[in-house]
Structures are given as C-alpha cells and as structure tokens.
Request: fold
Amino acid sequence: MLGFRRIFSAGIWGLPLLSANLLSAFPVPVDPAPRLERSVESVLDLLYPEPSAETEQSAIQLEQIILAELSAQYNLDIIIRRSLGRNWNKIDSEHRSKILELIKQLVVRAYVEGMKGRSRPSVQFEATEFLSNKRSEVPTQVNFDEFKVSLNYRLGWTEGRWEIFDLVIEGISIAVNYRNQFDAFFVNSDSLALIQKLESLLTDENLGKALDF
Reply:
C-alpha cells in the first residue's frame, strides 16, 4: 500500500475542500481510514514478521502473498486503469487482463525491493478529508528511521465501498505520473509491446531497477 518517491518518481515508464455548509448536504459517509490502516498494517506484518512467525519463502512467494492481501482489500484494477487513462482504449481486449496483472506484479515488486534493508516504518494516519460523499483523502506520514514521507490516499466510493483512486507522494500524483509515461509509450508502441516491456522489467536481471520506459 505504501509508495515512496525514490521508487515511483521513475515510475513504470488541488481540489478545494467543500464548504461545511455544502458538505452537510451529503449523507455522512463511512470513514475509509480504519480499513485502510488495517490493510497497511497487514502488509507491513507480512514484510516484517515477528521472529516466531517467520517462515522460509522466496521473494516471489512473498510478493504473491502481498498482492493477494491487497487484492482482497481493494480493487487494484481501478487505480491501474486510472493510471492508464485514455490509453486503456488503445489496449487490445485480449491483452487487458494480462497487462493489469503484470502492472500489479511490478508495483508490488518495486515496493518490496524499496523496503529491503529498512527497519519497519511507523505510519501515522491523520483525519480523513471528505471532498464529497463519493470522494475522500486520507493523509498519512510514513516514518522511517532516517526520513519521513508524506503519503496521501485518494479514494472514491464505488459499488458500496471505498476504493483507492490515487496515491500522492510528497505532492506527486502516482496516477498522473504513470499516465504521462503511458501516453508517451503509446505514441509509437502498442499493447503487445507493453506486455513485452512489462515482462522484461520483471526478469531477474531487471529486478530492483527503476521502473522506467
């Protein structure tokens, strides 16, 4: 669930608050923060298990477990499709599910690699900002031993629950950052080339490298 500037600035290639009077016209929405916090902590527990809970597993197995945990909590297709933007329509229908899964794997791998060698961070959740009854933002601060990172979760209410629409890291929108790179990629390439690129980035020799097109 966490993302950090060093990982995501390379990438894989100021809405104002409503006034109190206007906001009061909407039904009081469910606060997305508790569920989000549980999800964040569950992933950190997988990355930093207690000594008594440690088991032998490969890096790939850990990535698969983390991806399964995240997918059980949130529809990750939503944030990926928002990152692809209009390029979604340029992807052949038979390639779409493959591309979604490859991007998920790649983002989880970047996260796991970025956390290696670091102590478990603490995550401070601040009060949820409700932009409307269908939009909210949960500000957090991720505290490492040597530095802190501002990470805001932007969520939308869809199909009866909150889903993650974007991550904003130190003021940088991950969805917009990725979308710009996908825009550039699709100028001269197609969806099959994207699959080949993503598969290349997931090979052992590219493991841990910047996710850049």
